[in-house]
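Input record (one chain):
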Amino acid sequence: MKVLVGDIGGTKTALAIVSSETGPRGLTNEKHFVSSQYDSVDEIIHAYLDDAAVQIDAICLVVAGPVIDGKAVITNLPWVMEEEHLAAKFNVMRANLLNDLEGMAYAVPILNDEDVFTLSAGVPVSGGSIAVLAPGTGLGEAYLTKDSATYCAHASEGGHASFSPINALQIELLEFLQHKKGLEHVSMERVCSGSLGIPNLYAFLKETGKHPEPEWLAKKLTEGADMAPVIFGAAQTSELCAATLHLFCSILAVEAGNHALKILATGGIYLGGGIPPRILEELQKPEFLATLRRKGRFEGLLTKMPVKVILNTKAPLMGAGAYGLR
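The corresponding structure, as predicted from the sequence alone:
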């Protein structure tokens, strides 16, 4: 059996083939496409199959957006995808659409030691639930539960739940975003992501006068559209950037602990997405785990939960393969 797997995003799309012989980690014929250059995912799949010259039996795609009743609308693209349409269009036995974090979650049980960086080995419970958080462009959240011998992933939109500050600085941040920036609803994604969170934290620390913005940094930030890489890169030389990164990690730690408690993640907490691998040095500082675990009477329970960073960028494709080959 051969399954076409894909990671469909607003910026780029990756497609590959997995088979019963190679398993979900055995990605072949992997190709990347600029999403905006195509009018639909159908066009990308046609281009891929014409070039690969391979016969497929099924399709499994992970998409950047919610999947409801077999339908998905891609964030930042005017694409609508439907499982029934894809199955009929490409004459396959089935087509599956998974939320991108759901797809990443399906990869967790098949990750190897080299695919992750362990922040805390903990004492995992066999078959215990697993929490997955992925701060990148946005903030995705999902989780896994085990039914008999198989883990099942569950999508969520937890990144859009309300931001809950834990100290005076974070309370001030919430008030700044509500009153100065006019945000009626301040979601976790507004303070814990690359496209929204990092710029909001930076603006808060700068505009409230907590840390001055040096002229060289202001100039550098105007040169690129994405502030996050500049801020991460300047954390060693700029007090403002260092404070932004520190605040980001504190908020991420709190949310990871919250998510883990809500699903009782005795199987572990996995941090995916584009940001965690780039800030490993900061995540390894004792304060990150201490903040994650600071939940009063449940600190001991959280201390036993493994905490790992997903390093393998192909995890969403592998997760699609794991689901598609079931």
